[in-house]
């Protein structure tokens, strides 16, 4: 990690650690080193996720504007832009999760192609299937606003995606 990246991460880790210590104290639990490491890994996963969201939106917008500017695939351009954004943003996420979040320790190995395929599967499951089912549940059954439902989905899909990535996609051999 670069010097600036280390400074940025140290600030985030200090603030997040303080918040987690307070939360653990409120519920009467000890904030151990193991808990800290696991929670910081989840925080890193969240940071990658936020960057992934920004990258996905930028890719979608650029692709859509580009396709419309040259008149390719009218009426379907937004769907093609969605696919391009998904494919490239998951690749972005895979790179950073592999490099910064699910880092291998000395002596561990991982088949990168296998991990990449599993990453696409996990993001497809949480991003397409799970979010769609949850949207129907929140909007049609619970009657939550269509604008609030995706935010509620994040509270479910992000931890599920983290668990799938940690214990399946990025599992070391």
Short précis:
The chain is an all-alpha fold and 173 residues long.
Written description of the protein model:
80% of the residues lie in helices and 0% in strands. It has five helices and no strands. Helix 1 (3-26) crosses helix 2 (33-70), helix 3 packs across helix 4 (112-141) and helix 4 (112-141) packs antiparallel against helix 5. The chain is globular and about 55 Å long. The model has no long low-confidence stretch (mean pLDDT 93).
Radius of gyration: 19 Å
Average pLDDT metric: 93
Instruction: Output the number of helix runs.
Output: 5
Poorly predicted runs of 5 or more residues = none
Q: Report strand %.
A: under 5%
- Straight-line N-to-C gap: 25 Å
In N-to-C order, the SSE pattern is HHHHH
Tell me roughly what share of residues is in helical segments. Answer: over 70%
DSSP strand tally: 0
Category by helix and strand content: mainly alpha
Q: Describe the biggest sheet?
A: none
Which shape, going by the Cα principal axes?
globular
């Amino acid at each position: 990690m670069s010097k600036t990246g280390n400074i940025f991460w140290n600030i985030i880790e200090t603030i997040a650690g303080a918040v987690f210590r307070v939360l653990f104290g409120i519920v009467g639990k000890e904030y151990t080193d193991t808990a800290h490491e696991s929670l910081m890994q989840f925080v890193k996963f969240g940071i990658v996720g936020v960057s992934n969201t920004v990258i996905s939106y930028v890719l979608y917008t650029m692709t859509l504007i580009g396709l419309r500017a040259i008149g390719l695939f009218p009426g379907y351009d937004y769907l093609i832009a969605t696919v391009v954004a998904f494919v490239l943003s998951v690749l972005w996420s895979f790179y950073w999760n592999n490099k910064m979040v699910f880092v291998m320790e000395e002596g561990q190995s991982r088949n990168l192609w296998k991990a990449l395929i599993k990453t696409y599967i996990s993001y497809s499951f949480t991003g397409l299937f799970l979010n769609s089912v949850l949207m129907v549940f929140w909007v049609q059954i619970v009657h939550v606003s269509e604008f609030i439902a995706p935010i509620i989905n994040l509270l479910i899909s992000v931890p599920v995606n983290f668990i799938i990535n940690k214990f399946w996609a990025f599992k070391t051999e």
